[in-house]
Amino acid sequence: MREFIRTTFSRRKLQQLCVNTALSNLVGYAAGSLVMVLTTYHSVERRALKNLFGILPRKEVVVHRLPEWLEWTLAVLLGYLVMELVRNMIQSNKYLRLMDRSRRQVVAGDCKPRTPAG
Q1: Biggest CA-to-CA distance, the chain
Q2: Residues 23, 25, 31, CA angle at the centre, nearest 5°?
Q3: Cβ count within 10 A of residue 38
Q4: Is 55 helix (H, G, I), strand (E, B) or coil?
């Protein structure tokens, strides 16, 4: 049992988990933020009674193209989907596994120089 815990919670595996999770969360956050940026814009306030028909300085207002609840829901869903897609791509990437395997062999000293067969 002790050996299982040591191999499962090794420093390298925990470091990989943290890096993969941080990368996928960052990309998911960026995708969700992009939804918010694309569905809102800033506009200058029109003349009205509250700014004395233009005598007082006009304020900049945020205008939402979609209802806020729909905008928020789209941002969360798209961010989550992109996060899971990136996490899945990282886990299934065979090139990352090959690089990791070759690095382990070099560190362990198991890497043997190739000689031509003959």
Answers
A1: 94
A2: 105
A3: 13
A4: coil
Residue type, 60: E
Distance of CA 78 to the CA centre of its chain: 11
Judged by phi (left if over 0) then psi (alpha if -120 to 50, else beta), residue 20 lies in: alpha
Residue extents of the structural domains in the chain: 2-108
Matching residue, tokens 């090139």: 95
The encoded tokens of residue 12 equal 């390298």
Token pair belonging to 17:
């988990």
User: What is the C-alpha to C-alpha distance for residues 19 and 32, in angstroms, rounded to an integer?
Assistant: 20
43: nearest Cα among 61, 58, 25, 29 = 61
Q: Within a 13 Å sphere around the CA of 22, how many CA atoms are in the beta-carbon half?
A: 6
Q: What digits encode the pLDDT tens for the residues 7-53? A: 778 888 888 888 888 999 999 999 999 999 999 998 888 888 877 87
Q: Is 0.70 surpassed by the pTM of this model?
A: no
Helices (H), ranges, the chain: 2-8, 11-38, 68-92, 94-108
